[in-house]
Amino acid sequence: MTNHFLLMGQDPDLIHQLDQLGKQAHWSFDQVTTPTGLVVALENHQPTGIWWELSATDLDTTIATMTLVRHQVHGPITVFTPKLTERIQRKLYRARVDDIVAFPFTAAVLRAQLEQRQWLYQHVQFKAAVTPSRQPSRQLITIGRWRLNRQNYTVTKDGARVDLTPKEFQLLSYLIDHHDQVLSRDQLVAGVWGYDMLNTSRIVDIHISHLRDKLEDDPHHPAHLLTVRGFGYKIVK
Predict the structure, then answer these.
(1) Assessment of whether the complete model's pTM goes beyond 0.90
(2) Residues 53, 9: contact at Cβ < 8 Å?
(3) Alpha-carbon distance 62 to 72, whole Å?
(4) What is the largest CA-CA distance in the chain?
(5) What is the pLDDT of residue 166?
């Protein structure tokens, strides 16, 4: 099985060390430089695991991001830090991080540690945590020429299927449930992603932009998915 990780970090020494380790162990990784970038990347593919450079962001943002994505990541999360304290360890482990590694590190030891974690994830069956949601009042909803089907999680436009990611579908569905109501970015993050995460308004903007590109005739002049400047977004029928 190919091992492909997602690295959130910018430190050139850490990146070089992980690159060298990857060549030895036949692993690869994609790099993102912000927590928002990592959240968006997880929408597109499921990595073997997450590598997170703690010095690239503050501890509170790290904790918030881990809490947000932990249920999406079906592999080990490893945090790398040049400074390791008891407080950092306590908070990260409470956020369900698997391992905390001080760098620079010994490549052979880290490789053995990561391989052990992967073996554990591969041989122990985990049940994905599913956040209960209220039963929607309607399963089929029409917005102009769009049609959303909650039974089979599909969206069509003029009868042609539009491919949405799970989060895009959830965001559209949430906006429809609150149609004609202006929702702030914080409300959308809490309602769709399930956590009041710090500094994540960009996540909402990116997903709204993707929905407009896929559904609106003119994404720059949307007919249904509207921006209310200074407040947030709303969907109108």
Answers:
(1) no
(2) yes
(3) 16
(4) 59
(5) 83
